[in-house]
Write a structure and sequence with these properties.
CATH topology of the largest domain: 2-enoyl-CoA Hydratase, Chain A, domain 1
Helix content: 40-55%
Main location: other
Keywords: Fatty acid metabolism, Isomerase, Lipid degradation, Lipid metabolism, Lyase, Multifunctional enzyme, NAD, Oxidoreductase, Peroxisome
GO molecular function: (3S)-3-hydroxyacyl-CoA dehydrogenase (NAD+) activity; 3-hydroxybutyryl-CoA epimerase activity; delta(3)-delta(2)-enoyl-CoA isomerase activity; enoyl-CoA hydratase activity; NAD+ binding
Number of strands: 19
CATH class of the largest domain: Alpha Beta
Subcellular location: Peroxisome
Largest sheet: 8 strands, mixed
Pathway: Lipid metabolism; fatty acid beta-oxidation
Structural class: alpha/beta
Length: 703
């Protein structure tokens, strides 16, 4: 017989102190059952004779780490978190919040509604709602400025950053930091207080209205300058913090709630929430049903160039022992210089102390001898994209690796099946495709071929998670070509841009259109930064589809020696030491001559034409990835594009953008865009929308 679920909140007594204990693993999210449980326990505690004070605490690893995000798109259920916070604040008996772990979002709002806060030494607090395109909606913008003042409140709410218990105490957010047992000290603190102290009525930071308004106005001007006049959530946050000065608490809460609802209904928030769920879904690998990650203590990386050194830094920062193998003494010295320079910069910028930087380097072994690989639990090959070089090296690695080691290749576009077979132990071999700079970029595509064992795949997943990366599974198979999600989408993006370049657009026009869409850089700015010769070499090494249109403009530029920033001249011209360029007039002449040779009459493109063509090209490539089974779900494609290629996170990703567009609008735009290019612009987005909506429905009903 199935047991009834355990109630997530219970009421205990410790003498004259009532103890409300939340237990809703894994993070004690404040869903409706928890909110109702806290309200009922609070009312029961107040009804009991002899109750002097009440402590709200939580079991498990954390105080409530926020609201239940799954309820965001559901009809509201009472008590709302705002109502619960008001109930706590209006308690006639003192209420103390005992905070441990991470009190985030709604969890911190609940703690601020309590009259006093006691925190464990390791506790951290924050209001991260801005990262979802919304703002704290249960009193965060009203109570926090009353506790810490407008400057610190705006810092916390606009950045979403967390503060430690010690900093929170200095700010006035926490009343006491527990030295030993949090629960015991919170109960003792509750016994020591004599009456409630309502945060909402606190006017300490509101007394100097002129200074308060000066802070608000300065921050509003800063937001407009840095983010623009249409930055919805940030400007609403500033307005709400202003309301904390100008309005009584209840009226301020009404302003906050209305602002939160407006943000919640925005396209920006929908995109950010989609990105949040997409990252969670991407880490759910089917192999988890059959295997668990193997223990990885020592990581070996073969290849100490920019990528290999970046992977080594990421591993060192996460506490792994690292062996880095590079060819020859000069290669070893160059790798050491790269890694040492990273730690010097980190110390200079205050990201690490000198002691931390030195400690990390003690776990690094740099060598030019492959026989040191025998101690590694995971070996990552990270040399140049040359099939012959990689197959030969992987065979050598396999001969030296211990039998239980997992072997990974960082290849970005070579055939993973061929590379896995070259090791002679394909079941132990996977792809780990890091994105540059590997020490910073959070994306890792995990390449899974048909022979890879579930444990090898899960070991790669566990390693990526331990690095703090966002892992995405890419199933590669014979005949697909590019084995990874990101490369396939990027090729479609660049191909669409190149066709428009050939047909009449300019590099700066295309770049500008994509920047206005939300990318930090356009495709030709990125090409210049990466180096045109790298993409050229890749194109020359791959067979071409005879039915696909090929644009030779970039090839002609490389043959002229125009390689981008590294040569000072590409699509743009760069002054020495400058990363910002001006349009290269010689490239415009080259393009005009190229059009004339091919008999192309240039046409005009609007920014919308450019954006729609590129978006639909990406979506169609994504639909093909889904059809081939390379990507497990449309949202995985969105994660790759957001983290790997700078797709604006506030839009969610290209597949979500397609879902937000009706089939009728897509069809009407297709007739305008380019019906002569069916491989790039077709009705495939409609298929992706159906697949995406079906997946969202299934996820909602299984979460």
């Amino acid at each position: 017989m199935k047991q009834a679920p355990k109630h997530p909140v219970r009421l205990e007594r410790q003498g004259n102190v009532a103890l409300i204990v939340i237990e809703n693993p894994p993070v004690n999210a404040l869903g409706v059952a928890v909110r109702r449980g806290i309200a009922a326990a609070l009312n029961a505690a107040l009804a009991q004779e002899g109750t002097h004070a009440i402590v709200i605490a939580a079991n498990g690893r954390t105080f409530p780490a926020g609201a239940d995000i799954r309820e965001f798109d559901m009809a509201p259920q009472e008590p709302s978190l705002t109502q619960l916070c008001s109930l706590v604040e209006n308690s006639p008996k003192p209420v103390v919040a005992a905070v441990h772990g991470t009190a985030l979002g709604g969890g911190l709002e609940l703690a601020m509604a309590a009259h006093y806060r006691v925190a464990a030494k390791g506790a951290r607090m924050g209001l991260p709602e801005i990262k979802l395109g919304i703002l704290p909606g249960a009193g965060g913008t009203q109570r926090l400025p009353r506790l810490v003042g407008p400057e610190l409140a705006l810092d916390m709410i606009l950045t979403g950053n967390q503060v430690s218990a010690g900093i929170a105490a200095e700010m006035g957010l926490v009343d006491h930091v527990a030295d030993t047992d949090l629960r015991e000290e919170a109960v003792a603190y509750a016994r020591s207080v004599t009456e409630p102290r309502q945060t909402g009525a606190n006017r300490e930071h509101l007394r100097d209205g002129a200074a308060y308004m000066a802070s608000v106005n300065a921050r509003r001007a800063q937001v407009k300058m840095e983010l623009g006049a249409n930055a919805l959530a940030p400007l609403k946050i500033v307005n709400c913090v202003e309301a904390a000065l100008l309005l009584p608490l209840e009226a301020g809460l009404d302003v906050e709630r209305a602002a939160c609802e407006e943000c919640m209904d925005s396209r920006e928030s929908a995109g950010l929430r989609h990105a949040f769920f997409a990252e969670r879904a991407a880490s759910k690998f089917p192999e988890a049903a059959d295997a668990k990650p193997a223990q990885v203590d020592r990581v070996a990386i073969v290849g100490g160039g920019l990528m290999g050194s970046g992977i080594a830094i990421a591993a060192l920062q996460s506490g792994f022992a690292v062996t880095l193998v590079e060819q020859g003494e000069s290669g070893v010295n160059a790798a050491l210089e790269r890694i040492g320079a990273y730690y010097e910069r980190s110390v200079a910028k205050g990201r690490l102390s000198e002691a931390q930087g030195a400690a990390a380097l003690t776990h690094l072994q740099l060598t030019n001898k492959l026989d040191t690989l025998s101690e590694a639990d995971l070996i990552i090959e990270a040399v140049a994209e040359d099939l012959e070089l990689k197959t030969q090296l992987l065979a050598e690695i396999s001969a030296l690796a211990k039998p239980e080691a997992v072997i990974a290749t960082n290849t970005s576009y070579l055939d993973l099946d061929i590379l896995a077979q070259a090791t002679g132990r394909p079941t132990d071999t996977i792809g780990l495709h890091f994105f540059a700079p590997a020490e910073v970029n959070k994306l890792v595509e995990i390449g899974v071929h048909d022979a890879a064992s579930p444990q090898a795949v899960m070991t790669g997943l566990g390693f990526a998670k331990h690095l703090g990366k966002v892992p995405v599974r890419a199933r590669v198979h014979a005949g697909f070509g590019s084995g990874y999600i990101g490369n396939a989408i990027l090729e479609a993006y660049r191909h669409a841009a190149d066709i428009m370049l050939e047909d009449g657009a300019t590099p700066s026009q295309i770049d500008g259109a994509m920047r206005s869409f939300g990318f930090r850089m356009g495709p030709y700015q990125v090409a210049d930064m990466s180096g045109l010769d790298i993409a050229y070499a890749r194109r020359q090494s791959k067979p071409r589809d005879p039915d696909a249109r090929y644009v030779e403009i970039a090839d002609k530029m490389v043959e002229q020696g125009w390689l981008g920033q590294k040569s000072g001249r590409g699509y743009y011209i760069y002054a020495e030491g400058q990363r910002q360029g001006v349009p290269n007039g010689d490239v415009l002449k080259l393009i005009a001559e190229h059009r004339a040779q091919k008999g192309i009459t240039p046409r005009k493109f609007s920014d919308r034409d450019i954006r729609d063509r590129i978006l639909l090209a990406m979506v169609n490539a994504g639909a093909r990835l889904l059809g081939e089974g390379v990507a497990a779900r449309p949202s995985d494609i969105d994660v790759v594009m957001v983290h790997g290629f700078g797709y604006p996170r506030s839009r969610g990703g290209p597949m979500m953008d397609a879902d937000a567009t009706t089939p009728a609008i897509i069809a009407s735009r297709l007739s305008v865009l380019a019906p002569e290019e069916p491989k790039l612009w077709s009705a495939a987005p409609v298929l992706s929308m159906l697949a995406h909506e079906r997946q969202k429905f299934e996820d909602l009903n299984t979460s």
